Amino acid sequence: MATIFDMETVALDDQDSALLIIDQTQLPGRREILRLKDQKSIWDAIYLLKVRGAPAIGVAAAFGIYLAAKEIDEDTFDDFYKRFEEARDYLDSARPTAVNLSWALRRMDSVVRENREKTVPEIKSLLLREANEIKAEDIRVCCSIGENGLKLLKPGMGLLTHCNAGQLATSKYGTATAPMYLGQERGYGFHVFCDETRPLLQGARLTAFELQEAGIDTTLICDNMAPSVMKQGWVDAVFVGCDRVAANGDAANKIGTSYVALAAKHFHIPFYVCAPTSTIDMACKTGADIHIELRPAEEVTEMWYEKRMAPEGVKVYNPSFDVTDAEFITAIITEYGVAYPPYDVSLKEIFEQKAKA
Ligand code: MRU
Q: Which residues does the Swiss-Prot or TrEMBL record annotate as the active site (predicted)?
């Protein structure tokens, strides 16, 4: 599949001693690779959205906790694990909504706990192996979501997406964009509308950029234009990513997603959520249980512009995500197949297939 960069979004350097990320806050203007070694800079990169998107922050956290573990200079398991837990909890505190962050850290934690009889250097190399596997899995999962999503589409269709669930939000290919990249490779000739996605403009800065770089016919629209392009008949399906899906199918994704879902329902347009199973949180019963991250007011009042855009002192409400109720979701596309309502049944079946695989 077409990719935009020679390197993947998140990687370790050749010596396995630093995390390499594309600084997404600089895109599309500058392609700057950051080399991060210490925990504070990795935490900051996640919090400040230099690396962002649920799967990508999961992979970054896996590499991040490996780098932290590598620096722990203790010989006994108990001393090593105490410091490992501190680093794990610190990274986990960077962002609350995308479940992939805690999911990846839990996986890394299990590697440590299940190998307590091994030496500390052995545990460190197992951690490196697991982090690499989390990344490799992410790439395979995106490819499968691409295949499963493409089966729902026909050549020449108009698609709409919100925020960035693309290559930049994962290790490669993206989730919502994977069917678009695959379709491009197979001559489907899709036309994609990208919502700009206020306040941080992931749609304008990242999705429009990566789709255009891949040669896909791309049109950028402001968030408030989605119903208008739907009404013209230009959108045949909506594809979005997600940060956490509850067991009943309610899905948290970038703020504004639920408004796109409402419009899609009104115009009888299918609304698909692309969800790796790592983003489905079966321990979370409904969307009401999902912790929605609140971000700084400055993202709304002054970011990206030379001048402040709002009066000093105005109150700002800046939730980073919203929850789309399951009733507005036509289907949830996973790497194990497509789940349809009722999701409390179909998502369980997806996990049963995963357990057998
Ligand atoms: O705040 P962000 O930019 O990390 O939000 C990202 C999204 O909402 C994505 O749609 C989601 O993480 C899915 S990425 C495959």
A: 243
